[in-house]
Amino acid sequence: MPPSLRLTVLAALLLPLTCLHAAGPPPPAATACVSPAQPLREQGYVPINGIGQWITITGAACRNPVILFIHGGPGNALSPYADAIYAGWQQDYTLVQWDQRGAGMTYAQQRPSDDVPLTVAQMRDDGIAVAAYLRQHLGLDKVILMGSSWGSILGVHMAKARPDLFHAYVGAAQVVNARQNEAGMYREVLALAQAAGDTATVDRLAALGAPPWRDPRNFGILRRFDRKYEALATDAPPKHWWQPAPFYATPAALAAAEAADDYSYLQFIGLHGDGMFASIDLPALGTRFDLPVFLVMGEADLLTSPAIARTYFDSITAPAKGFTVVQRAGHDPNQAMLDAQWKVLREQVAPLLR
């Protein structure tokens, strides 16, 4: 089935199941929360900066603080897996998943034109618009902002641009600088392969040469070796985490998600190493934050080195800040990383909300 037909079928399947808003301004303030004890379970397309973007809102009570998750990738939407991964959080927090422009269900509804590239500035503005929508829709002043990997790039951009929207920024697998992170990953994976006598990996990495690269395949090749060595030093997440919920597991939805991953990867890396990632330099945005900042890093993370993140963290000023290194955790989330994030939320962020 051609991609255009798959998307048409997907749209037809989704419309009866969603709370799709008509084009126009977001609904009036506090439309979702009638009482503090009211549970929330919403999913649907919301008009964000000219296109319908997929948002889910789940929580046991409207009185609870709201967490806006900024997923990684940039094409790796968390919505299909959120209930499995974060089910235990829903009693204490209202959890918001947002499928970014070019990702997940947003891609299925509104595929970006191939001749209009994704930009960090556009996606930052989308994220700010989502936060503003939540403030209006749920009748609150601020949300907690959580970003991981690519989401940590957007998270910092959003926090720097509109700190007034957020109680705090919590970053996991924090990216700092494209060239530093990419070069650091290459050096560390090569050193591990050499120490292990893994000549096949050493030879393949030597053939790639050190970054930066112009071939978009090279980053993906290095990432496969990175995952191989992280797996040796980390504990795997529960298998059920990565089984998409039934709503997202239809053939049409899975095909759209796969196409979105491909599209977003090329936008991220670029056909000649000139994608969004190439320009990332968070310290250049300035190291003063007007909101609390907390970073949570896996000790075995080779892609976003905790040492590079620590140097960045030490340079910033913020009303409050904290840095956590998680044993037996790498770049991708596992139970140890989730437990550490929960502890930061309960022990460091929660007191700031009182």
Record field, number of beta strands: 8
Q: Strand order across the biggest sheet?
A: 1-2-4-3-5-6-7-8
Helix coverage percent of residues?
A: 40-55%
Strand content: 5-15%
End-to-end separation in angstroms reads 53 Å
Form type: globular
Radius of gyration: 20 Å
| Main pleated-sheet profile | 8 strands, mixed
What order do the SSEs take from the amino end to the carboxyl end, as H and E? HEEEHEHHEHEHHHHEHEH
Regions with little confidence, pLDDT below 50 for 5+ residues: 1-30
Structural class: alpha/beta
Count up the helices: 11
Average residue pLDDT: 91
Features:
single chain, alpha/beta, 40% helix, 15% strand, globular, disordered N terminus
Short description, anyone?
The chain has helices at residues 3-14, 82-86, 104-109, 120-138, 150-161, 178-195, 199-208, 217-233, 251-269, 306-315, 335-349, and strands spanning 40-48, 51-59, 66-70, 94-98, 143-148, 166-172, 293-298, 321-326. With 354 residues, it is an alpha/beta fold.
